From TrEMBL:
Keywords of the record: Membrane, Signal, Transmembrane, Transmembrane helix
Domain of life: Bacteria
Domain spans labelled Autochaperone: 166-273
Coiled-coil features, chain-numbered ranges: none
UniProt-recorded name of the protein: Autotransporter outer membrane beta-barrel domain-containing protein
InterPro entries in the cross-refs: AC_1, Autotransporter_adhesion, Autotransporter_pectin_lyase_C, Autotrns_rpt, OM_autotransptr_brl_dom, Pectin_lyase_fold/virulence
Single GO cellular component term: outer membrane
Regions that span the bilayer: 411-432
Amino acid sequence: MSGAGSHLEAGQFLSIGKELGDSDATLNIGEGSSVAVSQELRLPSVFGNTASTGRGTININGAATPGFLHALNIVFGENGLGVLNFNHTDNSGNYAFYAPITGPGTVNVTDSGITTLTRDYTYHGKTNVNAGVLRAGSTNSLSPTSDFAVASGGTLDTNTYSPTVKSLSNAGTVTMLAGGTGSVLTVTGNYVGNGGVIAMNTIVGADNSATEKLVVNGATNGTTILNITNLGGAGAPTTGNGILVVEVAGASNGVFSLPAPGHLEVGGFRYELVKIGNNWYLSNNERTEASPVEASVACTPSQLGGSAGLVATCTVSLSVPLGVDMPINLNLPANSPRYSSTCASPLVIAANATQASCTITAVAATNESDVMAELSIAPPSVADAYAVGGVPAQVQILGNGNSRPGAGAHAVPTMGTVGLVAMASLMGLIGLRRSRKHNGRQG
């Protein structure tokens, strides 16, 4: 059924593929099309003949409205040659597959769409995520008896669940980011990293920090990058092994690493991914002094005239971004009728940002005196949260009618035309007298 908007109602059984000879059969369910089977769909229908070479394939195609398949049960034939292909390109995240699947067969995700599996599945065979996204929609929707392979262009999304798979080969992306810090991905067999990425959340702090985790009951091999997202951790010493992120029961030959630069900087602590025994931990040996977090402040412009409404912007900066909101204590300007200020202490710099700003605004002068508004960084409330850097920022508010360098140029007195003529005559007279004196000495 490749035509858009087609609909097929089948009776009690629908067989795709037969056991006779080498016959194969394919059902294409295209854009806007649907197939409904009242009970069982056999893929292929080989009736216990494991030697049969008959194949049965279902292709789910489409873009905006991919094909829909409803069956009481999809039964992969005993010969293991049944295939379900998700070839659609709907990346809205709305496409969900509901039909149960049992038996030995293969599930492929081959195009750029997002497919959510909503049932608890028990099929065994291979699940290949070659492109797009295969997303868990229930606890066991990623079949615990299937061998999963994620290609370089594919993504396996555990969503908010803690699924178990039989084995996992990863050259693409496995993401656990929707699961907060409570999700665990368990591999009952072996895990092989083919240069793929596992993305997980951790509250980066001390050894007992909450974190998502990869658990491998079998062996590990190959290389994998762990992309850790810090969910609000402020950093703390790891006095034991550290934060357990990969747990391996079997032979631990796989190598896990953090993305460049190869470590995490949180709250002045440098975390590295280290292997202790069979397991991998986020660990810091000591507080790093190599790149201290420094807070400084600067105001622009540094001088305001005596008119009302002139504004200086004061920017508080961190030398490096942090993964959490950072409150910066300030020594605020003294109260004065000559200016107003939006600056408050503490001034919070948002997570992953490096700057926050406030303002100083001039009030119309009522006298001739100047005033100075000074703003500086105060020590943190939590020891060593940041270092006080730079010098205090000053904004000069000029008195009414006053001017300073930069506020207006001073007038340079001039002599006028008559003065210049007189000066020239005087210089000529002085030169003549010197000439006569010199000639007299020679005579």
